Amino acid sequence: MKPVLLAAFAALLPGVTLAAPIREEGAARRGLAVYHQVCSVCHSLSHVEIGDLAGLGLSDRQLRDLAADIQVAGPPGPDGTPTTRAANLSDRLLSHFPDEASARAANNGALPPDLSEIARTRQGGAHRIFTLLTGYTDPPKGVSVPDGQFYNAATHTHLIAMPPPLADGAVTYDDGTNPTLAQEAHDAAAFLAWSADPHRSARHWLGGVTIAFLAVLAGLVFALKRRVWSRV
């Protein structure tokens, strides 16, 4: 029986790949640079822990260097005044503003939305984000834009409170990619699509491993059944 079981096991293995999850190291990883250098000034990613960014291929050293560059709220000082501390890998990417009023005061009265799931909850997803980030233009002749508003062809009203966040050269990429406005917008959209479901790759890998295990188990059971019934 043993040779039969081994043969069944071996027959199933060629079609089974048990490699570790493939880490995204392209657009989404560059998008992290866009978020960290530009977007994080106003926007939070409250559902994402710094340690989750390992899913983009960052090494432990890179994660710790990034965490050291981020300040989060610390325990109150001896006199009760707020303090800050360097982040650790379990900290989430929260807003830098202490409260909603401060956030609105710094953004023409608008509250910067949390970006954790914006690519999943807003119609159009990542493509919508890209068109918004690249939609800033001068208003057409005869169109007036109120103070504190900006013309953006991608919005329903063509007005938005957020100033144009990106421009050519606004970001420094570690991989040498030319930081044009379109490139930065594309990468930011890719990163926000990833941040909306940062554990998706791991789940897909685990699902593949589970299917592979069940396929091998089914083959072994089938081989055992044939072996047993061949004696009857």
Number of DSSP E strands: 6
Figure out the total of helices.
8
Cα end-to-end separation: 15 Å
Return the CATH architecture: Orthogonal Bundle
| Approximate shape | extended
Strand order of the largest sheet: 1-4
GO molecular function: electron transfer activity; heme binding; metal ion binding
Main location: membrane
GO cellular component, one term: membrane
Keywords: Heme, Iron, Membrane, Metal-binding, Signal, Transmembrane, Transmembrane helix
Give a summary of the structure in a few sentences:
This protein has 232 residues and is mainly alpha-helical. It contains 8 helices and 6 strands; from the N terminus they run H-H-E-H-E-E-E-H-H-H-E-E-H-H.
Report on this model:
41% of the residues lie in helices and 7% in strands. By secondary structure, the chain is mainly α. It has one domain: Cytochrome Bc1 Complex, Chain D, domain 2. Strands 1-4 form a two-stranded antiparallel sheet. A two-stranded antiparallel sheet has the order 2-3. A two-stranded antiparallel ribbon has the order 5-6. A hairpin with a 7-residue loop joins strand 5 and strand 6 (159-160). Helix 2 packs across helix 7 (181-195) and helix 6 packs antiparallel against helix 7 (181-195). The longest helix is centred in the last third of the chain and has 30 residues, at 200-229. The two termini are 15 Å apart. Residues 4-24 have low confidence and may be disordered.
